[in-house]
Amino acid sequence: MSERVGVYICHCGSNIAGIVDVEEVARWAGETLEDVVVSREYKFMCSSLGQELIEEDIKEQGLTRVVVGACSPHLHEKTFRRACANAGLNPYLCQMTSLREQVSWVIEDRAAATEKAKAMISAAVERVKLHEPLEAEHVPVNPTTLVVGGGIAGIQAALELADAGYPVVMVEREPSIGGHMAQFDKTFPTLDCAACILTPKMSDVGMHPNITLLTYSEVEEVTGFVGNFHARIRKKARFVNEELCTGCGICIEKCPKNVLDEGFEVGLGFRKAIYRPFPQAIPKFPVVDTVNCTYFETGKCLACEKFCPTEAIDMEQKDEILSYDVGNVILATGYDLFDSRKLPQYGYGRLPNVFTNLEFERLCNAAGPTEGSIVLRDGVTTPKSVAIIHCVGSRDQNNNPYCSAICCMSALKFGHLVMEKTGAEVYSFYIDMRPLSKGYEEFYDRLMQEGMHFVRGRVAEVTDIARTPEEEGKLVIQAEDTLVGKQRRVPVDMVILMAGLEPRADADEVGIKFGISCGAAGWFTERHPKLDPVATMTDGIFIAGVCQGPKDIPDTVAQGAAASARVQGMISKGSVEIEPVVATIDAERCSGCRICNELCPYNAIEFLADEGVSYINTALCKGCGTCVAACPAKAISGAHFRDDQIFAEIEGLLFDALPAADDAVLA
Amino acid sequence: MAETTYEPKIVAFLCNWCSYRAADLAGTSRMKYPANIRMVRVMCSGRVDPAFVLRAISKGADGVMIAGCHPGECHYQEQNYKTMRRFEMLKQTLLGFGMEEKRIRLQWASAAEGGVLAQAIRDMVDDIRALGPMNWPGNWAPDPDAEEAILALAEEHAEVMEVAR
After folding, report:
1. ipTM for the complex?
2. Which long-range contacts (CB under 8 A, 24 or more apart) does B125-128 make?
3. Looking at the whole model, is its pTM more than 0.80?
4. Domain range for B20
5. How many angstroms away from the CA of A545 is the closest CA of chain B?
6. What is the domain-level CATH number for residue A635?
């Protein structure tokens, strides 16, 4: 019995119809292609009216197959499959082809675009006729969520999940959660102190009965699939027994070794060889820095062990490998700061009084190395004038072309803090001011009224070579003032570089580990830039915070909450649909050659020695189809991507081509 | 003879995760490329059976592109390495048949590389336009010396071949 195929061509407003002659394609398909019984075009196929059109035709015209020529299947394949299912047709009997992304948006010539659209419809029709009904498998969702990264994004996501009653495993690479926000002094535009709003949330995470907190730990491997991931986590040895440690801090006090703190204090302060990154660290347990600890260097000392009242120090401790089964993953891995040394013209690392934004946060912080006094690198002198340079490494074709989104507002905050604490003159060198969110423009106004100076122009150079007596002993900012149209030299005591945000150095590696990708700039790619910003192309893996792209704290928190809401939705639904696109082996045809066994990266194929054939465990199969292509006996079949279906698609695509034999007439 | 109106037809096999998304991105970014390429979506470039390529050619394609994730970035961990190996063998076979090298192309394009894919398509269409239609027998230049040698060999071993038969 032949199939009854319905063809639907979407105008997508004028997106497709503006280039493709949709009426002609629909007419042609209806008149030319075998088994097509209905062929229509419609303004918006994805609208409810468009979907109803398909549903009515299935019911009234008895369609057995549906082809939709519209946008990319990545956008609306689910929509049209659902429409088919609503009308009682198995959703896998629908085929979508991309007349927008692959035709109307990339081709300028109307005739060529229409011809290509015909080829694609013809391919879809030939293919869909060979489709077979498939049933999606439903598997339960493990209610535990893995949150990777303990900055404010991860904290927000973890707390919302835990408060809703769901278990969370939080993994943080550093000894304490808190992330970059814990290093900040004040937060714009309200100027409330970062620690005051962050540390209560940190302790909530530490004490929450639903949260298993693993700090100083890293995810080594993730296997499985949505609803059923399996994570292997390395918990690095802290050399402190967490069961016994009370966090009293006597070990830190007694440790004789001072170490420059290049982590939390960004090189401005010192810590001990056994340390907590900062006093409010969560968890409170210290960690031994084996690179600097005297015991690890010489085998002697153990002052910490001697003085520990609970005998919690354990120098024999080894890394532990822990395993967790989780249903979903939220990645909130944050960012690295742009390395200002890459712009030698600004003198960072060479001119002592050039600071980065993060260094300034620590300088300004009452809990920081200077107890909040803003002083030069000598530790005593208060600057009388400060220059803030925007867009360091950002909006720069030689480095990061994107805007780092937070620096304008941080610079305004710094301006306020400098003026408030020191009374110094503050000069901001900006390209454009971008105070975009709620209350930000008002904060900019406030700073203008407070007397911060704004010079519009990218700074060419920071130099200590004076040209005039006033410039002696100063750092001179050389920049073009583009509003006045002339070069300016501004002598100052201190320079703050607003270093931009960059993807983590290992973002690519982490992405591969979790099966998600990074965009051109290196940030994790969301499923849809506008409509699905926290999901990824891999089901069950979500992203939140700056790892997805530069953003400020309010947006980061919003994304953490959004990711948690998405996960809660998955958990409360209870099960997920697994695409039935898997491979199977026909035991009758299998010769037992075992070529396929070695090809599967998921170990889904096992060899049944008794029967002398290979067998695919469909629960492990991800449906890539590599084994299908490799089987010399053609015993393996890949559902929904069978050989005959793809052959039919190829032949349909080439409906207007001459076969090779007839074409080879040229001498 | 190849006329000025000759428009090659190229079939491309794109993996679902990187290169098909690169095509999506090329579209949403309104990058332009010639209409000569027609795409088939497969889950992974590793699914591309050499028979698909041969079928496309036998049905009149003037060239075939296989596109996948960059090595090390495969959605299925490492399957594109298998594509790479398979592609080399297939290419050698097709070259042996007298097909020009530029008619078959393996292209890596990540989901962020709409521009890379669009440029590869433009280049390939230009290359094949310059080659003209498929011309296998024409490319198979006869070598009289080789033919003579084969005949001489056959004569020399006629007895053995008789037995073997």
Report:
1. 0.86
2. B125/B8, B125/B10, B125/B33, B125/B34, B125/B36, B125/B37, B127/B63, B127/B102, B128/B8, B128/B10, B128/B36, B128/B62, B128/B63, B128/B102, B128/B103
3. no
4. 10-164
5. 20
6. 3.30.70.20
Q: In chain A, what are the helix, strand and coil shares in percent, each to the nearest 5?
A: 30, 25, 45
- Of A361, A314, A645, the closest CA to residue B40 belongs to A645
CB atoms within 10 A of CB A86: 15
What is the separation of C-alpha A264 from the centre of its chain, rounded to a whole number of angstroms?
A: 24
Task: Strands of B19-113 (E only): list them.
Answer: 37-42, 63-68, 104-108
Contact B11 A647 (CB under 8 A): no
* A343-356 pLDDT tens trace: 999 999 999 999 99
Owning domain of residue A630: 583-639
What three-state secondary structure class fits B120?
helix
> Shortest CB distance from B59 goes to which of A625, A643, A650?
A650
The whole-angstrom separation of Cα A625 and Cα A623 is: 5
Task: Tally Cβ neighbours within 10 Å of residue A176.
Answer: 23
Per residue in B27-80, pLDDT (tens digit) is: 999 999 999 999 999 999 999 999 999 999 999 999 999 999 999 788 888 899
For tokens 């409330």, the residue is: A192
Residues 6+ apart with CB under 8 A from A406: A501, A550, A551, A552
Question: Do B43 and A119 count as a contact with CB atoms less than 8 A apart?
Answer: no
Whole-angstrom distance, CA of residue A422 vs CA of residue A554: 29
pLDDT tens digits, A366-388 = 999 999 999 999 999 999 999 99
Structure tokens at A352: 């002592």
Give chain A's domain count. Answer: 4
